[in-house]
What does this fold into?
Amino acid sequence: MATRALLRVSDLSLAEQDAVLDAAAWYLPRVEAGRVKWSHLRGVSTLLMFYEASTRTRVSFELAGKLLGSDTINVSAKGSSVEKGESIADTAETLAAMGFGIVVVRHGGADAVALFARHFTGAVLNAGAGRGAHPTQALLDALTLRRAGVLARGKRLAIVGDILHSRVMHSNLELLTARGLEVLLIAPPSLMPPAWREGPVMPGVRWEPDFDRALPGLDAVMMLRMQRERMEGGLLPGLEEYAALYGLNAPRLKRLPPAAVVLHPGPVNRGVEVSEEVYLDPRCRINNQVTCGVAVRAALLCWAAGRPLIPEGSEA
Ligand code: CP
It folds into this structure.
């Protein structure tokens, strides 16, 4: 059993989430300035075990680990003994036997990271599990929203697009509803979970199929990637029609309030979820989210190692 496991956002109390966000806010300007290096996690070995593709999550964990002085090793399922049929449980026990203190796991199955944590003796961080949860993404989104003044009770945020397949949506719902934000889920019926089409999804969350109607009342809009790799076909009439109804584009930017912010977890299908104009708009925070990701993951690696979240006095 893992000593510490972040499988979903609610594995951290609100106070612990705030401590992670405060620490990440400390890291952020130092990461942005570059040339930072600490010895805070010296002696802690971190393994990144990715059964699914990733750029942002994998690289930001690796960068954060290296900035903190952790020995950081990358493994992808392709080329590992997973290809020979090794089970998740055996992989976890094998890595524990090598003395890794922290394993960061991404997997296509919603329960796979929890299974890994049951068989690993160090700390486990969920880097995205199937359609289930992506807690570190929700925390970096929270930092991005906090910096924009939107992470506050009564603010209204829309999550737009492929709700049906989105682990990012699940983790954001957990985090945002616990803080009293109102969330609109904006999607065609075919991309909403069937049970959520009937009435209120949960307190503070409702389905709104009309993006244009919602836009003027939003403080933030989070566009989701179309997860075509998880679609079995027939869910969409066509990407052009989807983009016309649910894509964020120049006419819709005009309807969005001037103080609102635009997020997307990436990777982005440009021209589908967002048009080129979005990247040129000062309200766009997509690249800022990526930088926040390094800072949040630095704080989370310290949490996983059981060390203070900020390496005060340990500049290498
Ligand atoms: N947002 C996100 O998880 O991106 P990657 O798949 O590139 O890690």
